[in-house]
Amino acid sequence: MAVAVRDDVQHEQQEAIRAAVRDVCKDYPDAYWRELDQRQEYPEAFVRALTEAGWLAALIPEQYGGAGLGITEASIILEEINRSGANSAACHAQMYIMGALLKHGNEEQKQRYLPKIAAGELRLQAFGVTEPNAGSETTRIQTTAVRQADRYVINGQKVWTSRFKQSDLMLLLARTTPYDDLTDKTRGLSVFLVDLREAGAAIESRPIDAMVNHSTNELFINDLVVPAENLIGEEGMGFRYIIDGWNAERILIAAESVGDGRWFVDRAVKYANERVVFGRPIGANQGVQFPIAQAYAHVEAADLVRYKAAARFDSGQKCGAEANMAKLLASEAAWEAANACMTVHGGYGLATEYDVERKFREARLYIVAPINNNLVLGYLGQHVLGMPKSY
Amino acid sequence: MNIIVTIKQVPDPDIPPIHFKVDEAAGKVVPPPGVAPVMNGYDANALEAALKLKEAHGGRVTAITLGGQEARDTLKRAVAMGADAAVLIDDPNLREGDSFTTATALARAIEKVGEYDLILCGRQASDTDAGQVPLGLGEILGLPTISPVIAIESTNGGVKAHRMIEDGQQVIEAQLPAVMAVSSEIGEPRYPPLRGIMMAGRTQIPVWTAADLGLDDGSAAPKVQLRRLYIESREQACELVDGDTPEEIAAALAQKLREAKLI
Ligand SMILES: Cc1cc2nc3c(=O)[nH]c(=O)nc-3n(C[C@H](O)[C@H](O)[C@H](O)COP(=O)(O)OP(=O)(O)OC[C@H]3O[C@@H](n4cnc5c(N)ncnc54)[C@H](O)[C@@H]3O)c2cc1C
Question: What's the whole-model pTM score?
Answer without folding.
Answer: 0.87
